[in-house]
Amino acid sequence: MIDILVFFLAASLLLYILMGGSDFGAGILELLPAGELRERQKKVINHAMGPVWEANHIWLILVVVILFMGFPKIFTTLMVSLHLPMLALLLGVVVRGTMFTFRHYDSIQGPRSQGAYTWLFGASSLWSALWLGIIAASLNRGLIDNEAGDFWSAYVAPWWGAFPLSVGGFVAGIFGFLACIYLLGETEDEALRRRFRRWGAVFNAWVVVSGGGVFVLSLAEPVSLARQFLGHPLAMTTLLLATLLCGVLWRFLVKTRVVWSRVIAAGQVVLILLGWWLLYAPNGAITVQGPLSFYEQAAPEATLRQLVIALLVGSAFIFPSLVFLLRVFKARRPGEEEEH
Amino acid sequence: MAVAYGQAMDDLTAARATMAFSLGFHIIFAAIGMTMPFLMSAAHYLHLKRGDKVSLELTKMWMRGVAILFAVGAVSGTVLSFELGLLWPGFMEHAGPIVGMPFSWEGTAFFIEAVAIGLFLYGWKRMSPWVHWATGLVVGISGFLSGIFVVAANSWMNAPAGFEWVNGEATGIDPVAAMFNRAWLHQSAHMQVAAVQAVGFAVGGVHAFLYLKGRAPELNLKAMKIAMVFGAAAALVQPLVGHFAGERVAELQPAKLAALEGHFKTSTYAPLTLGGIPDEDTETMHWGIEIPGMLSVLAHRDPAAEVIGLDQYPKEDWPPVLVVHVAFQVMVGLGMLMAVLGLLHFWFLKKGKFPRWFLGALAASTPLGMIAIEAGWVVTEVGRQPWIIYEVLRTQDAVTPVPGMVYHFLLFLILYLGLGGMTVWLFARQIRVTQRKVEAS
Questions:
Q1: Do B119 and A325 touch (CB under 8 A)?
Q2: d(CA B88, CA A133)
Q3: B356-370 per-residue burial string, b: 16 or more CB within 10 A, e: under 16
Q4: Structure pTM?
Q5: Where, by residue number, does the polypeptide cross the bilayer (chain A) (predicted)?
Q6: CA dist., res. B194 & res. B234, Å (int)
Q7: Do B78 and A100 touch (CB under 8 A)?
Q8: Contact: B89, A79; criterion CB under 8 Å
């Protein structure tokens, strides 16, 4: 039972990063200078994200529900120790979701209001991506302390520092990169495609650089990602593979092979997450008092069984409907104008 | 939520205020998200059947509203799922495994809703008209199911079931029994009918107002009629559902019933008090109108039945009587008013003509349903205090140890007031544009 749940948890997180992440990346991309391409880019992003962003967003809710029903102790520990970054993340999630929708559905599309929506959407996308990375980094650095006496060590120290911030930058880079790869297949506009390719390269370089930064900065951490990595050949292999795939990806990108580019970019993210997972499994978090393993912190069997049933039955509804959604919208007929 | 003068809000009060405000904000959007798709589908149906352009304009106008409100509802709902842990870790640690099940089903329903809304909003030219119409209906159905699941989870806090509480730990957990606890049916029924009622009146009221102003009369009259069919029907059913809920509360949570009726002393032939201000210190009601024996009849179907009063409970286990009683009076009073309006609506609909005074009354009653929903949630939630899990765990023992909760509260206060303001502003802009469009054609 626990294995199935951990699988669902990991799968939901992965899908949130792949699908929701590229929505965040689109926001980050809109924050960057675009000159005369701004309006065209906005239109492409609206059409690409509009029908799917709500569904992409729900993977996050699924992660939360699996955690609080299946692994309540891990959930509450995180919600107490990482209260502040969670709050910051929520703030960003609320602002970006609403601003994206408001921008599209405002009946009067004035330049000033549209500009404000776009800026808020972009800034909150970057903000949320950073905090998502900070939270991810805080899980396993061994500073979460449920018995801490003072405010700093209980609620700030677990996520404070250069290392979590570098992970935040890394995550933002991945999101931006995913968005570029994804959006490349959403338009026939050659100028825009050039832009997505160029920024894809920039984000890719940034991911490599910030990834290196994560590695170096982690050396000073109580539980060091770098040292763990070096002692784990399998995890190292996955990371190496992810890096090597960059070369393959560039060949497909240059030729604008949309589907292959997407598959490989997604594969890279899967490999990175897998490496991360291999390092820390089966722990949901590492605290000062020791690791919180999914196997030791799980809810009673009766609860797990119900959760698995709900997830399996839910999947039987969710996946066909998602496939239908993608078939309806991603079978793109060029030049067609949407009406809504 | 009493704030002591001269000092900042304490953390428990701030956490409760945050939760209350977040729920109070979300419930408006959730109610609209559950109901509005049905209104929209009705208009869409009329368009597809008869091919009239006004129904199409109406569908699209409502659709844009649904898109905006759904987004706000989705993100504020996400906030709530986090806040359960951010504000009440002591609750979630115990309650998560017991009552997580309805949440997991709600997740599924919400997922389907999100997929369906994407299909409906953007799929006008990508599907056959009736398939497209059906996706709009699926938004409503899955939204409605989400609502039932979430309220079932809430009802467990009022009628805890599916576990045994031994030495501060839950054992023998049965999530199915927890979900189908003894309060789930009446709470879900009451809330779902309330959602339809409140949204029917809100939408009907706005369109009645615009009709009276002489703007796009055909569109607004049609909109008012569609919305009010839902609102009026729900308003007529609600007193029965509410009565059923009241009977269950009398049985499951006598202290809550006593507080909402301001019933201090256990008695037979208990009177029903209309209005009135309860005084907790002297344990008396001031200025209420008493109907002898009526409370006994309503609670237990027998004028001679004994109705348990607050005197059966130690004072530290009392909910805040004044707040609960006033909120209850507001909810019931508005519910009765809406039932009368609903009856009149069907009468005028049958006659085929709506007098201006009635449309004016509808316009004036735009916010009534939403106010009643908020009041009803105050009754449910404040009436359960001081317990977070009724007679098992106290709210003060479940609150987060994180200090400075007042800032958390202020953050969401500002954020949500801003979002609420923007939503209203967007609607005003949208109504203006649609009317211009209809009037021009």
A1: yes
A2: 24
A3: eebbebbbebbebbb
A4: 0.92
A5: 6-32, 44-68, 74-95, 116-139, 159-184, 196-220, 232-252, 259-279, 307-326
A6: 7
A7: no
A8: yes
Strand (E) or helix (H) holding B286: strand B284-286
- Residue B169 touches partner A, C-beta closer than 8 Å: no
Whether the CB of B85 is below 8 Å from some CB of chain A: the reply is: yes
Q: Please judge whether B122 and A155 are an interchain contact, meaning their C-beta atoms are less than 8 angstroms apart.
A: no
Cβ-defined contact of B118 to A80 (cutoff 8 Å): no
If residue B142 lies in a helix (H) or strand (E), which one and from where to where?
helix B129-158
Domain count along chain A = 1
**Predicted pLDDT at B437:** 81
Block residue for tokens 């009736």: B130
- Give the Cα separation of B441 and B136 in Å (integer): 26
For B13, B26, B403, the CA distances from B400, given in Å and listed in that order, are 12, 21, 8
- Which residues numbered 279-298 in A keep a CB inside 8 Å of some CB on B? none
- Tokens 């967007």 belong to B426
SS3 B270: coil
Interatomic CA distance for residues A270 and A264, integer angstroms: 10
Which pLDDT does position B2 carry in this prediction?
Answer: 42
d(CA B257, CA B299): 9
Q: How high is the ipTM of this complex?
A: 0.89
* pLDDT of res. A333: 54
Residues A301 and A155 sit within 8 Å (Cβ to Cβ): no
In DSSP notation, B8-24 reads PPPHHHHHHHHHHHHHH
DSSP bridge pairs for B306: B268
The bridge status of strand B387-389 relative to strand B272-274 is: unpaired
pLDDT tens profile A58-67: 899 999 999 9
Q: What is the predicted pLDDT for the residue at A332?
A: 57
* Residue B77 Cα, gap to closest chain A Cα (Å): 9
Q: Could you read off the pLDDT of A278-328 as tens digits, one per residue?
A: 888 888 888 988 899 999 998 999 899 999 999 999 999 888 988 888 888
Partner A contacted by B420 (CB < 8 A): no
Among the partner residues B92, B401, B422, nearest to A72 by beta-carbon distance: B92
Give the minimum alpha-carbon distance from A212 to chain B in angstroms, rounded to a whole number: 32
Q: Indicate whether B8 pLDDT > 80.
A: no
Contact B111 A311 (CB under 8 A): no
User: Which range marks the domain in which residue A258 is found?
Assistant: 2-339
Report B:97-136 residues touching A (Cβ under 8 A). 97-98, 100-101, 103-105, 107-108, 110-112, 114-119, 121-127
Domain boundaries, chain B: 199-401
Considering only the beta carbons, identify the residue of A69, A83, A93 that sits closest to B75: A93
